Amino acid sequence: MGYNVNVDAEKCVGCGECVDVCPVEVYEIKDGKSSPENAEECLGCESCVEVCESNAITVEES
């Protein structure tokens, strides 16, 4: 089962917390914002959702 990982660029402040907490390196910071560059690796743990203070990240089962 896969997951859809989305980052709302308007909400994202580019803090990098999701990059630091993700165990499978789904995120990269590009142009000052988080980008789910390796979304196919997502485990669905939602650690990124929990650390995102701007509520910019959603993870849903696909």
Overview of the structural elements:
This protein has 62 residues and is of the alpha+beta class. The chain has a single domain, classed as 2-Layer Sandwich (Alpha-Beta Plaits). Helices cover 16% and strands 26% of the residues. The strands form two sheets. A two-stranded antiparallel ribbon has the order 1-4. A hairpin with a 2-residue loop joins strand 2 and strand 3. The longest helix is centred in the N-terminal third of the chain and has 5 residues. It is globular. It starts with a strand and ends with a strand. The mean pLDDT is 97.
Helices and strands in order:
Layout lengths: L2 E5 L9 H5 L6 E3 L2 E3 L11 H5 L5 E5 L1
Antiparallel strand pairs: 1-4, 2-3
Quick overview:
The protein has 62 residues and is α+β, with helices and mostly antiparallel strands. The protein has 2 helices and 4 strands.
- Which word captures the global form? globular
Instruction: Give the strand line-up of the largest sheet.
Output: 1-4
Q: Sheet with the most strands?
A: 2 strands, antiparallel
Q: From the 3D coordinates, which CATH architecture would you assign? A: 2-Layer Sandwich
- The share of residues in extended strands comes to 25-35%
